[in-house]
Structure formats: structure tokens, C-alpha cells
From TrEMBL:
Belongs to the tellurite-resistance/dicarboxylate transporter (TDT) family. The keyword RNA-binding does not apply. This is Sulfite efflux pump SSU1. PANTHER family: ACID TRANSPORT PROTEIN, PUTATIVE (AFU_ORTHOLOGUE AFUA_4G09410)-RELATED (PTHR31686:SF3), PTHR31686. The lineage of its organism: Eukaryota, Fungi, Dikarya, Basidiomycota, Wallemiomycotina. One of its GO terms (cellular component) is plasma membrane. It holds the Pfam family SLAC1. It is a multi-pass membrane protein. Keywords: Cell membrane, Membrane, Transmembrane, Transmembrane helix, Transport. Its main location: membrane. One of its GO terms (molecular function) is sulfite transmembrane transporter activity. It comes from Wallemia ichthyophaga. The keyword rRNA-binding does not apply. It is found in: Cell membrane.
Length: 387
């Protein structure tokens, strides 16, 4: 009954770690095996959470409108992002080994993720506008989760496009650019609003201080998506000779267009990555300052730092590859090792407090109505307008 969407943050952090290990610029014998083991763990965690989530709303259907009308609905964005990490690893690990069937699986799952991401990106902000009373002091970085989901879907589409036939790859790349446009601008606006909230009402409570890392996510993932999509476009140009996003076959013009796109994409990615670095240090300092002054409780929100750090590392990996920069490769490896240490600490702690002690399975939306599922009449989601 107490499985809420925020649990999929575990799959996000676990999934991006497997991706980073697989793509690390400094490989050694066995690293792909370690990545594969973490990938397998992520599949198990994702499937278990999905089954329990379906059972929750099948057995107690009134919990769905209750959850949608509560701020916990922001975490619905974690579901498609967790799925995206699985899709990327299918492309990286399974497609080279097992071929077309896994290409098809990744392609179908990506479209499912795209649909859920778009619904989340549009639907959750609308619910906030129409069904919830939100004050400035109640704005947290979690407000970014619905919009970041489309950015992650865009970067996943860039990965999927690398294994698709040319015609399908072109469509996938175009959709990915649209998804990036849906997520990045609104994320920047929300980050400005969040900055305003921090200045006026200061840092979040210790229990939620890890949420300050979420602001890194849009920056790291956008930088990665821009680089990866640019690389995909150049890959298509070399195969087809078509000018990007047109049906014009002119190899010289297409090659020049590809060079121009790459020339613009790298500085743009660096610019956005730098913005992410700023938020990274803000988050680290905020966490350290809070830890020095107060006790930070062990809870599920600690997973909020994993995926954002992973996105910064992932974009640094791609920058290192595109720029042939040893410095960026080293930075990406340092961030990856930081994430690995955090994951090695968090994962067993999560297992202990969730499976053994059963103390992390809490539902804020359910607790606020007495701990028992209400009737549909009591929730009345449709008529509960705030305007």
C-alpha cells in the first residue's frame, strides 16, 4: 500500500551507474561484467517496484487520484527516467550480443517512455496549477522531475537511434530534439523559481537536503543529449549523404551542415555543463553545511543525489570523447567513482531499512488521510479545482 513513485529514484541511480561503468573511458577486464551485474540488479528492482505499483492501484484504486492530488505526484517522472536507464543499457549491452530482437525491444520501450514522459511533463504541472495550493516556501527541486523526464527521454532516443535503420533513426532524432525542447526551457524557468525560493526561505530541511542535487540533472542530461544527437546526425550524414532534417541529397552540403552542427553543439554542451557544475557545488556545500550543523536522517530522499551526479559524469564522458580531452575523461571518472561510492553505501542501507526493518515504506498522501484508503467520493479529484 505504501509503494510511492519516489521509489523509482533507486532505479535511476542504479541504472545510470551501470551506463557510466559500461562507457567509462578507462576500461579494465571485468568492468563490463560489473556494469552488467548492476544492470541485472536494476532490472530486478524496476520489475519488483512496477509489480507492487500496479498491485497498489489495482487493489486500492482510490489511491491513484489521492496520489495525483498530492505533491508526491512530482515523482511520477522518476518512472520513465528509470525505464530510460534500462533502455540505454539494452542498447549498450544486449543489442551488440543478441541483435535485432533487442533493437526492437529498446525501440518499443523508448516510445512507451516518451509517451509517459510527455504525459508527465504536461499533466503534473497542470495538476499543480489546477488542483493544488502551492506556496513559494513549498517549492523544492522535485518540481523539476516531470520536465527532466523528457530530457532524459531525448538522450535515450539519441542512444536508440544509433542501432536503428536510417529512416527510423531520422524520426527518432527529430522526436528527441522536440523532447529536449519540451524539457530544457521549462526546467531553466523552474530552476530560477527554485533559486528565488532558496534565497527567501533558505535551504530545505535536513530530511530533504539531498533534493538540492536534482538541479544538476537538467544540465547534465541536456549537455549529453545535445552532444549525442549531434553525433547521431553526423552518423546519418555519413551513411545517407542527406542534408540534416531534409530530403535533399547533397553530400558536400550535408557534410558542412554536420560540421556546423557539431561546432555549435560542443560549446553549447560545455555552457550547459558548466551551469550543472555550478549547481553541483551549491548542492555539495549545502549538504556539507547541513550535515555539520544538524543530523541528516537516513531516508529514501538520499537517492536524489545519485542520478544528477551521474548525468554530470555522463555528459563529461561524452565531452571527453567528442573533444578528445583527457581532462574531461578524468573528471568523468572522478564523478563516476563518487557515484559508485554513494551507491555502495546507499543500496545496502536501502535494503536494510526497506526489506528487513520495513521503515522506509511510507506514503505521505495516505498518512494525511489517516492511513486508510479513502473512497472515490472523498478524494473527488475531478471536481477538486482550485480556480
Amino acid at each position: 500500500m505504501n509503494i510511492i513513485p519516489s521509489w523509482f529514484a533507486v532505479t535511476m541511480g542504479t541504472g545510470i551507474l551501470s551506463i557510466l561503468l559500461f562507457n567509462s573511458p578507462y576500461q579494465f577486464n571485468g568492468l563490463h561484467v560489473i556494469s552488467g551485474v548492476i544492470f541485472a540488479i536494476n532490472i530486478i528492482v524496476f520489475v519488483v517496484l512496477l509489480i507492487f505499483t500496479i498491485l497498489r492501484y489495482a487493489i486500492w484504486p482510490s489511491l491513484l487520484p489521492l496520489m495525483l492530488s498530492h505533491p508526491v505526484n512530482l515523482f511520477l517522472g522518476t518512472f520513465p527516467m528509470g525505464l530510460d536507464t534500462l533502455i540505454t543499457m539494452i542498447v549498450n549491452s544486449l543489442v551488440p550480443r543478441y541483435g535485432y530482437n533487442y533493437v526492437l525491444l529498446a525501440y518499443v520501450l523508448w516510445y512507451i517512455s516518451v509517451a509517459i514522459s510527455i504525459i508527465t511533463c504536461i499533466g503534473i504541472p497542470f495538476i499543480q496549477m489546477s488542483r493544488q495550493n502551492v506556496e513559494n516556501r513549498q517549492i523544492f527541486a522535485t518540481a523539476l522531475l516531470p520536465t527532466v523526464s523528457t530530457i532524459v527521454a531525448a538522450s535515450t532516443g539519441a542512444s536508440v537511434a544509433t542501432v536503428l535503420p536510417d529512416s527510423q533513426a531520422r524520426i527518432t532524432i527529430a522526436i528527441s530534439y522536440i523532447l529536449l525542447g519540451m524539457g530544457l526551457p521549462i526546467s531553466v524557468l523552474l530552476m530560477a523559481n527554485y533559486s528565488y525560493r532558496l534565497i527567501l526561505f533558505k535551504l530545505p530541511q535536513p530530511a530533504f537536503i539531498s533534493s538540492t542535487f536534482i538541479t544538476i540533472g537538467p544540465c547534465g542530461q541536456s549537455a549529453y543529449a545535445i552532444l549525442k544527437l549531434s553525433s547521431d546526425v553526423n552518423m546519418l550524414i555519413s551513411k545517407t549523404g542527406l542534408v540534416p532534417f531534409t530530403g535533399v541529397r547533397d553530400e558536400q552540403a550535408a557534410r558542412l551542415a554536420g560540421i556546423a552542427l557539431q561546432t555549435v553543439s560542443i560549446p553549447m554542451a560545455l555552457f550547459i555543463w558548466g551551469f550543472g557544475v555550478l549547481w553541483f557545488f551549491f548542492a555539495v556545500i549545502s549538504f556539507a553545511d547541513t550535515w555539520a550543523a544538524k543530523k541528516i536522517p537516513l531516508n529514501l530522499s538520499l537517492w536524489a543525489c545519485t542520478f544528477p551526479i551521474g548525468t554530470l559524469a555522463l555528459s563529461a564522458q561524452e565531452l571527453g570523447k567528442e573533444m578528445d580531452s583527457t581532462g574531461m575523461k578524468v573528471v568523468s571518472t572522478i564523478l563516476m567513482m563518487l557515484l559508485l561510492i554513494i551507491w555502495l553505501l546507499l543500496f545496502p542501507v536501502t535494503l536494510y531499512f526497506s526489506v528487513i526493518k520495513d521503515s522506509w515504506f511510507t506514503s505521505p498522501c495516505l498518512s494525511e488521510v489517516g492511513g486508510q484508503p479513502p473512497s472515490f467520493e472523498e478524494v473527488d479529484f475531478i471536481k477538486n479545482r482550485k480556480y
